[in-house]
Amino acid sequence: MRKYETIFISNSDLQEKNQKELFEKAQNVITQQGGDIIDFDEWGNKKLAYQINKKSHGFYVCMTYGGDGKIVAELERIFRLDDNIMKFMTILKEEVVDLEAEKEKIKNKAETKIETETVTDVDDDAEFENEVETE
Predict the structure, then answer these.
(1) Do 10 and 65 belong together in one domain?
(2) Which end of the chain has a smaller Cβ tally under 10 Å, C or N?
(3) Distance in angstroms (rounded) separating the CA atoms of residues 123 and 132
(4) Domain of 120?
(5) Angle between helices 16-32 and 69-81 (to 10 degrees)
């Protein structure tokens, strides 16, 4: 099984409900074709470098998944037919991938990020208290 990463930009004017339906549709294509989703990361609404379809903003999403070339072909076919997908790009990350190990890596990375944010928040609170005491 190969590891792929697809980044796509959806219309930022979509309502949240329609946006979630679009994302579920993309995920369902992968799972129905026998692939496994490793990570689904919503990067959010960002300004585009240039206008696409007379729009200057788009909602960026990065999907990492395991599967074969048929999954990529079907996913890109669906993206081409959907007017709410403005741009997309798929790259092959690895020829052979262990899905369980990849999911574990992402889980550990998320836990580390949460711990780092917690430590940073505590440090910021301590600095604020020191400033208040000296005044």
Answers:
(1) yes
(2) C
(3) 14
(4) 98-135
(5) 150
Q: What are the E-state strand segments in the chain?
A: 2-11, 36-52, 55-67, 85-94
DSSP state of 33: T
Structure tokens at 38: 């490793």
User: Are both 52 and 90 inside the same structural domain?
Assistant: yes
Closest CA to 35 of 84, 79, 97: 97
Sign of CA dihedral 85, 2, 66, 4: negative
- Summarize pLDDT for 24-52 with one digit per residue, the tens: 999 999 999 999 898 899 999 999 999 99
Same structural domain, 58 and 90: yes
Phi, psi of 115 (to 5 degrees): -65, -40
Same domain for 107 and 86, yes or no, is: no
| Residue located via tokens 């917690």 | 118
